[in-house]
Amino acid sequence: MGARLRTAGLFLLLTGIFVGFGWIIGTVFFGNWLSTVILFLIFAGAMNLITYFFADRFVLLTYRAREVTEADSPKLYRIVRRVAGISGVPMPRVYLVPSMTPNAFATGRNPRHAVVAVTEGAFRVLDERELTAVIAHEMAHVKDRDILVMTAAATIAGALTLLARWAFWGTLLGGGRRDRNSGLLVILAIVGIILVPFAVLLIQLALSRSREYKADYVGGTTLGAPDALADALEQLEYRNRQNPMDFGTPATGSLWIVNPFQGHWLDGVMSTHPPIDERIRKLRLLAKGQDTY
Length: 293
Fold this sequence. Notes:
Radius of gyration: 21 Å
Number of domains: 2
Largest sheet: 4 strands, mixed
Low-confidence stretches: none
CATH superfamily of the largest domain: Metalloproteases ("zincins"), catalytic domain
CATH class of the largest domain: Alpha Beta
Structural class: mainly alpha
Number of strands: 4
Order of helices and strands: HHEHEEEHHHHHHH
């Protein structure tokens, strides 16, 4: 229920922002806010439905992920099936991301419609023990229904970013009732500028860092090997710093087990993950029987 409530809150926030933009644009450009508010309300409703049912597909398309069968990738399938069985969740669909940057994420609206995606680079860097621990972390997100709110937040953040850019450039290019509302136009331009980082802040509000800690804990204890996940995180952090992902969008960086866009100018603003050193430290202590979660 918690994930559903958080997602509902995101949808309500999205609706409110779109309606607010409709009011500003209608007042500034047309002198009649009612029609634009209704239009933006309809648009927000459509956006909510699309986000709920198709956000995972947008994410997979963004990263050019392709679904694989057991015949295509027997090792990955075997690991995912094993972890799904131990975790008590249905077997998710399995996707490969054509990137040599090692990483992984889970998406979908519920455990019955879940997807686990792994980059090709993960096979080059991680051994089977470490890869299994990474899958256990992602399966913890699936079991806890984090994937619903995570995917929705990432998609909504991207939509808000596009809306902000549209409003900003539309204002700069002029038009509308500039002579009568130059002050409002300037305000609209400023809103367009600040909404881009706000869209990212939305992810931070929706995805508390405690959720990554929880997935680490569940992933580490599910297999009884917290050290395996700690070793994997060390590898992934180093490799992603050396070779950040060169496609995709930073708005969806929160979906991955480690941030794949490290070094991007928005990296600090978008940091929804806990400090990697702290995550590793907690897992090392857990392996010694010291539960600091």
